[in-house]
Amino acid sequence: MKAAPVFEAGSHRWWIIYDQDEHRVIDSNVYVMESKGQSIILDPGGFEIFPQVFAAMVEVIPPSSLKAAFVSHQDPDIASSLPLWHACNDKMEWYVPKLWEGFIRHYGALNAPLQNISDEGGEVMIGGRRLEFIPAHYLHSSANFHVYDPEAKILFSGDVGAALLPPGHDAWVDRRDNTGRAFEEHIKKAKYFHERWMPSNAAKKNWIERVSQLDIQHLCPQHGAIYSGDNVKRFLDWFDKINVGTAII
Amino acid sequence: MDIQHIMGVVDASFAARQSIEKALRDIDRRALNAMVLVKRHGNALAGYGVVAQAFRERAAILKTSASHLQESIAPLIEAYMRILQHQRFVQSFQEMLSDSPLHGKACPNLISTQSKWQTTIHEEEATARKILVQLLEAVQTLQEGVEEQEYIVTNGRIEAALAESTGAPLMRVSRDMGEAVRTVAQAIRSYRHQLESLEHESSTRL
Ligand SMILES: [Fe+2]
Ligand SMILES: [Fe+2]
Q: Do the chains contact at A88 and B85, CB–CB below 8 Å?
């Protein structure tokens, strides 16, 4: 895997770690936000890809800067690496949906310091920056959060926006293309994922209404590629139009 | 494998890599400054011009060898993390066996699976050691490059003394160059110590 910068303003930085070398498990993106020497890792990934995520991460931040991890929901591609991170750094605080605490500990982290996020959401301060936990329940998990950084204008959107891309894929949906063609090409690879893994049109509608109020420059999904600039609105419009989950099955 | 020791080394090597990069950028800038100064004085500083040119070329070579260093630290860290990952398996089988010694008798596969993982870990440790040796060789090359750079700085001082009459601030330029080279030498030395502490740990365990 490799790390690429998503945002940089002084000591405030975001990275994406992407393009997995192991193809027997679903390809995932991991994100890191750093501010003033403190950092947080978002959806740190599965047990099987931990060595490559860690090696790519320490190219951009020292491991001792990690103060926290955010877990959008309980899935193994997100949280099953927890015991390994915990072995490396037992001071790291884990922000997890309250509903899933007892499930997440099954990954072998009986003693890890888990901080529950209640259904309404919340926030965390990392290196003086405030990150907001935005509820995204039933997208897809029944207790599910996204993370918004109002200064960087980044929304980490978990499985929303996910696309199943082949090995060697880019970190972005082509940013230079302003015709929308690159987006059209990309979104074909996101369609099945959303139709099948997102359960509820109502949850989707509610989320789009709330997220449209935010100023978003980069929408960063846990699988696939980042939507930047105009592609953010293109994505929200596309997501609004499709039917998902119970509406089609 | 002491994971906290490895974390300490990863942190220290991150800091060392950053200061090596910064110092190399600094060397490049100083070399360029020296070239500009020489150009401004025309033929009078031709001797120093040769030194400045050599300094700049060496700086480019140093940068290339430093980037090789970068390329081989990632596989080393990945190898250590794979060992950590697989130790979890060994540990959990170990726990099952020690919770109830009967498990071993009732389920011989448990013991053989555990020892299979143990073998895998030994192999991975051997791989990590191999990468570590390569990395130390890369550090050695980088150190040799820095020594050559130090030699050029000394030559620069001699040329600067010879050209003192031109009034160009060559002594200061040479001092700056020397300073930049010393910083990079120091950062590489501390990086090397970190790696050697890992090597020491892995060889004492054998
Ligand atoms: Fe998921
Ligand atoms: Fe996922």
A: no
